[in-house]
Design a protein that fits this description.
- The chain is built from six helices and four strands.
- It is an alpha+beta fold and 205 residues long.
- The chain has one domain.
- The strands form two sheets. It has a two-stranded antiparallel ribbon with strand order 1-2. It has a two-stranded parallel sheet with strand order 3-4.
- The radius of gyration is 16 Å and the shape is globular.
- 32% of the residues are buried.
Length: 205
């Protein structure tokens, strides 16, 4: 009952209240981004959502325009010159993720669930195994089991394995555990940088 009905209701109401309460933070972040560098305030990117369907995820732009085509591509490590000064602050505090509250309100995402991957990275939807595709049975989350168990330091096979585990064990108590662990990780700025090569091409789970 929780997963079929209450989870979506909770997500919508919490996201709506969060947008209202955090509107001053959203406003200040948007102004700072616009003042520091040219380009849009919101960074839009195609991701894979429930059922493998594409949707547009929203983030505050933390890098220079066209950054994915320069430097280290999809990964951003320590001292990446493509990241703006404001970008470093909003990344460290996870403020850059706040626009995803609108993704939740729209129904594209959940607060907690498997983190939606890029449409082409680490591989396309058709390249996932049947076991790995279980992670697409639920809406992608702003945070999830993989994010509180290594986040960006975990290579993709393991991240997907953790996402599948979450789908197979999802429930109210697990969501509560992930929520509070996420809060602790944000305050500690834990595992917030890509370390080494985290995209391994083997797809065993």
């Amino acid at each position: 009952m929780y997963l079929r009905f209450f989870k979506r209701v909770f997500d919508f109401l919490i996201a709506l209240v969060a947008v209202i309460v955090l509107s001053p933070v959203l406003f200040v972040a948007a102004i700072c981004i616009k003042i520091e560098s040219t380009g849009p305030v919101i960074f839009k990117q195609k991701r894979l959502g429930r059922g493998g369907k594409e949707f547009t995820i929203y983030k505050f732009r933390s890098m220079t325009v066209g950054a994915e085509k320069k430097g280290s591509g999809v990964y951003s490590g320590k001292d990446d010159v493509r990241v703006t000064k404001v970008g470093r602050i909003i990344r460290a505090t996870s403020i850059d993720e706040l626009p995803q509250l609108f993704n939740i309100i729209k129904g594209d995402m959940a607060i907690i669930g498997p983190r939606p991957p890029l449409t082409y990275h680490p591989w396309t939807y058709d390249e996932y195994t049947n076991q790995q595709k279980k992670m697409f049975l639920m809406r992608g989350g702003v945070t999830g089991w993989a994010q509180v168990n290594g986040r960006k330091t975990v290579e993709w096979n393991k991240r997907i394995e953790l996402n599948v585990w979450y789908v197979e064990h999802a429930g109210f108590l697990l969501d509560c555990k992930i929520f509070f662990k996420t809060i602790a990780s944000v305050f500690a700025n834990k595992d917030n940088l890509n370390v080494g090569e985290t995209a391994q091409k083997g797809k065993e789970v």
